[in-house]
Amino acid sequence: HIEDRTPNVEKVMTAAFDLFNRIKSGGCALVSTIIAEEWNENPILDFKLASKNSGPMVDDDRRSLAKEVSAFANSDGGVILWGVYAASAGPLEADVARTAKPIDNVIRFLADLQRHTGVLVSPAVSGVEHVILRDPCTPSRGFVLTYVPRSEGEPHMAMAKDQHCYYFRSGSSS
Length: 174
Description:
There is one protein chain. The chain is of the alpha+beta class. It is built from 3 helices and 10 strands. The strands form 3 sheets. Strands 1, 2, 5, 7 and 8 form a 5-stranded mixed beta sheet that branches. Strands 6-9-10 form a 3-stranded antiparallel beta sheet, covered by helices on one side. A hairpin with a 6-residue loop joins strand 7 (129-134) and strand 8 (141-148). The longest helix has 22 residues, at 15-36.
Protein backbone atom coordinates (compact mmCIF):
# COMPACT_ATOMS: atom_id res chain seq x y z
CA HIS A 1 0.00 0.00 0.00
CA ILE A 2 1.52 3.32 -1.12
CA GLU A 3 0.25 6.45 0.59
CA ASP A 4 -0.31 9.56 -1.55
CA ARG A 5 1.60 12.40 0.10
CA THR A 6 1.03 14.96 -2.66
CA PRO A 7 0.19 18.28 -0.98
CA ASN A 8 -3.18 19.80 -1.81
CA VAL A 9 -2.32 23.16 -3.38
CA GLU A 10 -5.85 24.14 -4.39
CA LYS A 11 -7.26 27.28 -2.80
CA VAL A 12 -9.77 26.50 -0.12
CA MET A 13 -13.14 27.55 -1.47
CA THR A 14 -14.50 30.23 0.81
CA ALA A 15 -17.30 32.76 0.54
CA ALA A 16 -14.68 35.48 -0.03
CA PHE A 17 -12.94 33.54 -2.80
CA ASP A 18 -16.31 32.75 -4.42
CA LEU A 19 -17.25 36.46 -4.31
CA PHE A 20 -13.87 37.42 -5.78
CA ASN A 21 -14.37 35.02 -8.69
CA ARG A 22 -17.96 36.17 -9.24
CA ILE A 23 -16.97 39.85 -9.49
CA LYS A 24 -13.87 39.07 -11.54
CA SER A 25 -15.88 37.11 -14.11
CA GLY A 26 -18.70 39.70 -14.15
CA GLY A 27 -16.32 42.59 -14.73
CA CYS A 28 -17.50 46.17 -15.12
CA ALA A 29 -21.04 45.02 -15.95
CA LEU A 30 -21.30 43.41 -12.51
CA VAL A 31 -19.84 46.54 -10.89
CA SER A 32 -22.72 48.49 -12.46
CA THR A 33 -25.17 45.94 -11.03
CA ILE A 34 -23.52 46.17 -7.60
CA ILE A 35 -24.13 49.93 -7.63
CA ALA A 36 -27.65 49.71 -9.07
CA GLU A 37 -28.61 47.11 -6.45
CA GLU A 38 -26.77 49.03 -3.70
CA TRP A 39 -24.81 46.05 -2.38
CA ASN A 40 -23.78 46.63 1.20
CA GLU A 41 -20.37 46.27 2.75
CA ASN A 42 -20.26 43.17 4.92
CA PRO A 43 -17.76 40.90 6.66
CA ILE A 44 -16.21 39.85 3.32
CA LEU A 45 -16.74 42.91 1.08
CA ASP A 46 -15.41 46.46 1.30
CA PHE A 47 -15.55 49.33 -1.20
CA LYS A 48 -12.66 51.80 -1.49
CA LEU A 49 -11.86 54.85 -3.58
CA ALA A 50 -8.44 55.74 -4.90
CA SER A 51 -7.64 59.01 -3.10
CA LYS A 52 -6.72 60.88 -6.28
CA ASN A 53 -9.06 58.73 -8.39
CA SER A 54 -5.91 57.78 -10.26
CA GLY A 55 -2.64 55.91 -9.99
CA PRO A 56 -0.12 56.27 -8.45
CA MET A 57 -1.21 55.41 -4.92
CA VAL A 58 -0.78 58.01 -2.17
CA ASP A 59 -0.35 57.59 1.61
CA ASP A 60 -4.12 57.36 2.25
CA ASP A 61 -4.41 54.54 -0.29
CA ARG A 62 -1.52 52.68 1.33
CA ARG A 63 -3.14 53.07 4.77
CA SER A 64 -6.45 51.76 3.39
CA LEU A 65 -4.69 48.79 1.78
CA ALA A 66 -2.75 47.95 4.96
CA LYS A 67 -5.83 48.23 7.17
CA GLU A 68 -8.07 46.06 4.98
CA VAL A 69 -5.44 43.40 4.26
CA SER A 70 -4.74 43.16 8.00
CA ALA A 71 -8.46 43.04 8.86
CA PHE A 72 -9.46 40.46 6.26
CA ALA A 73 -6.42 38.23 6.88
CA ASN A 74 -7.08 38.33 10.64
CA SER A 75 -10.76 37.47 10.06
CA ASP A 76 -12.36 35.24 7.41
CA GLY A 77 -10.76 36.75 4.31
CA GLY A 78 -12.43 39.23 2.01
CA VAL A 79 -12.66 41.29 -1.14
CA ILE A 80 -11.88 44.97 -1.72
CA LEU A 81 -13.44 46.64 -4.75
CA TRP A 82 -11.40 49.77 -5.52
CA GLY A 83 -13.17 52.54 -7.43
CA VAL A 84 -16.62 52.40 -5.81
CA TYR A 85 -17.91 55.11 -3.49
CA ALA A 86 -20.00 53.73 -0.61
CA ALA A 87 -22.01 55.53 2.05
CA SER A 88 -24.71 54.67 4.56
CA ALA A 89 -28.21 56.05 4.82
CA GLY A 90 -27.85 56.41 8.59
CA PRO A 91 -25.39 56.08 11.46
CA LEU A 92 -26.37 52.49 12.32
CA GLU A 93 -26.52 51.18 8.76
CA ALA A 94 -23.80 49.56 6.68
CA ASP A 95 -22.27 51.49 3.80
CA VAL A 96 -23.76 50.60 0.42
CA ALA A 97 -22.32 51.01 -3.07
CA ARG A 98 -23.49 54.40 -4.38
CA THR A 99 -21.34 55.55 -7.29
CA ALA A 100 -18.74 54.18 -9.70
CA LYS A 101 -15.49 56.14 -9.63
CA PRO A 102 -13.26 54.26 -12.10
CA ILE A 103 -9.57 54.75 -11.47
CA ASP A 104 -7.55 56.59 -14.13
CA ASN A 105 -4.12 55.12 -14.86
CA VAL A 106 -5.45 51.87 -13.41
CA ILE A 107 -2.39 49.90 -14.54
CA ARG A 108 -0.15 52.10 -12.35
CA PHE A 109 -2.59 51.75 -9.44
CA LEU A 110 -2.49 47.96 -9.82
CA ALA A 111 1.32 47.96 -9.96
CA ASP A 112 1.44 50.01 -6.75
CA LEU A 113 -1.00 47.63 -5.03
CA GLN A 114 1.15 44.68 -6.01
CA ARG A 115 4.35 46.40 -4.88
CA HIS A 116 2.99 47.56 -1.52
CA THR A 117 0.89 44.56 -0.47
CA GLY A 118 3.85 42.54 0.78
CA VAL A 119 5.41 45.35 2.80
CA LEU A 120 2.43 47.16 4.33
CA VAL A 121 1.40 44.23 6.50
CA SER A 122 3.67 42.26 8.82
CA PRO A 123 4.02 39.41 8.46
CA ALA A 124 3.12 39.54 4.78
CA VAL A 125 -0.12 37.81 3.81
CA SER A 126 0.35 34.99 1.35
CA GLY A 127 -2.15 34.59 -1.48
CA VAL A 128 -3.37 38.18 -1.90
CA GLU A 129 -4.48 38.69 -5.51
CA HIS A 130 -5.25 41.91 -7.43
CA VAL A 131 -6.98 42.08 -10.82
CA ILE A 132 -8.09 44.96 -13.07
CA LEU A 133 -11.66 45.24 -14.28
CA ARG A 134 -11.12 47.49 -17.31
CA ASP A 135 -13.62 50.06 -18.48
CA PRO A 136 -14.53 48.73 -21.95
CA CYS A 137 -14.80 52.26 -23.37
CA THR A 138 -11.57 53.58 -21.84
CA PRO A 139 -9.02 50.78 -21.23
CA SER A 140 -6.73 53.04 -19.15
CA ARG A 141 -9.55 53.34 -16.57
CA GLY A 142 -11.25 50.75 -14.46
CA PHE A 143 -11.63 49.13 -11.09
CA VAL A 144 -9.28 46.92 -9.13
CA LEU A 145 -10.48 43.86 -7.28
CA THR A 146 -8.40 42.57 -4.37
CA TYR A 147 -8.78 39.15 -2.77
CA VAL A 148 -7.35 38.65 0.73
CA PRO A 149 -7.39 35.10 2.07
CA ARG A 150 -7.91 34.24 5.70
CA SER A 151 -4.58 33.64 7.40
CA GLU A 152 -4.05 30.65 9.61
CA GLY A 153 -0.81 32.03 11.03
CA GLU A 154 0.02 34.74 13.51
CA PRO A 155 -1.92 38.04 13.40
CA HIS A 156 -1.00 40.55 10.70
CA MET A 157 -0.18 44.15 11.60
CA ALA A 158 -0.90 47.09 9.30
CA MET A 159 2.42 48.91 8.81
CA ALA A 160 1.64 51.96 6.66
CA LYS A 161 2.83 55.44 7.64
CA ASP A 162 1.55 56.38 11.15
CA GLN A 163 -0.15 53.01 11.41
CA HIS A 164 1.11 50.11 13.49
CA CYS A 165 -2.14 48.37 14.41
CA TYR A 166 -3.80 45.00 14.21
CA TYR A 167 -7.21 45.05 12.56
CA PHE A 168 -10.00 42.53 12.21
CA ARG A 169 -13.31 42.59 10.42
CA SER A 170 -16.51 42.96 12.45
CA GLY A 171 -19.70 43.24 10.42
CA SER A 172 -19.07 45.81 7.71
CA SER A 173 -16.23 47.59 9.54
CA SER A 174 -12.54 47.06 10.12
